[in-house]
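Subject — a protein and its fold

Tokens — whole-number codes for backbone shape
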Amino acid sequence: MQLIDDVADRVAIEVLKLVEETGNADIVEDIKKVIGTSSQTLEEAYMTAIRVRRAEKRALELIGQLRDQQG
């Protein structure tokens, strides 16, 4: 369902921003637990969004490094 993916991604983006600001990676799990008490489907979509956003960040960082190497 598109709504679940949209909500999960929006929450994941905000959580990852907060993790970056605070350095507290436990926030991801704290939010997961809160979401999971209400909706297992949203919890799964949230964790998928977290993994996708983290992978996206790593990929973009690598692309930037490769561009820098090319001069």
Observations:
- The mean pLDDT is 97.
